[in-house]
Amino acid sequence: MAESLKNKVDEEVGVCLFEHLSEKYKITFEAIGGLENLKKQASMKIIQPFKNPELFKKFKKSAGGGILLYGPPGCGKSYFARAIAGECNASFYNIGIEQILDMYVGNSEKNIKALFDTARENRPTVIFIDEIDALGRKRELLRHTNMTSTINAFLSQMDGVESDNENILIIGATNAPWDVDSAFRRTGRFDRVFFVPPPDAKAREQIFHLYLHELPIQNIDFKALALQTPHFSGADIKGVVDRVSESVIEEIIESGEDGFIDQSALMEDIKSAKATTMEWFSMAKNVVEYANENGIYDELAEYMRDEIEGKKSKKMGFL
Predict the structure, then answer these.
(1) What's the pLDDT at 183?
(2) What is 257-306 written as a DSSP string?
C-alpha cells in the first residue's frame, strides 16, 4: 500500500488498515483436491477474464464484479477464494466484517471507502468478505436502522459510481444466503452465486494429509479415512485429528513412552464423530423446497438429491 494511502486511512479512520495477503500464502487450484465442477465454473466465469482481458473486451466483458460463495460452515470458502486470487495473480484482501463495521457514526462508511481505495491502488485485486450477510442482511432482519447508510455506501463503492472497478473482484461468503438482501444480488453486484459443498473424497484425503503429515504418525491409510468421513467438513476433520492427538499426548504423559497417531485411533474417533454439515443441510432443505423459485439454489438441490438423499435411499435399499 502506498504510504500516502496509509496516512490517509490512518487520519480518516484511525482503526482500519488493509494489507493484502503475503505472497508466501498464495495458493492456486492445484492446492485444492476435488471440487472439479466448482473449479471449472470459477475458471470460466471469473478467472479467464483476468487471464484473457482482450478476448473478453471484444464481447464487452471485463474482469471483476462480485460473486457469492455459500455452503455449510467449515468447508473452505475462504480457502477457495484465496485460490481464485492465486489463479488470477491478484492481490488478496481477507476482510473480516469487524474491519468494516464500526460503532461510531460515519466510520463504517470511511472503512468501506478506504478498502476500495486500497483495492484500486493494487489491482488486480480480490477482496474476500466473510459473513457478508452481517452487512447485506435482509432489511426486515436488520435490528439497527443506522446500517442503511453503511449498506448504501458499500453498494455505491461496489457499483463503481464514482470510480472504475475493473480488475477488482469482490467475493462474499455466507452460511445463510437466504438472509442476504436481494439488493446485494442485483446484476453487477453479487449476481454470480456458487455453492461450496463439503469436500469430496479426494479433498478429504488431502485434508487428512494436510493435518497429519507433520505429526508423529504410523501406518496411515488416508484413502480409507476419506471414505469413512462422508459429508465431513474440513473443520470436522481437523476436530478428529485434534482429539486423537490429545489422547496420544495423554498416553505418552502417563506411560512415559513415545506414542504415535495410528489408523485404528483415527477410525475409532470417526465412529463417534458426526458431520456438522448435516445440521446445515437440514435447515437448507426447506429453502430448497419452498424458496427456490428463481433457481438460485439449483446446485444445492442437485447436491442434496445426489449426495445426501440418494445415498440414504441406497442404504435403505430403495435404489
Answers:
(1) 87
(2) S---EEHHHHHHHHHH---THHHHHHHHHHHHHHS-TTSTTHHHHHHIII
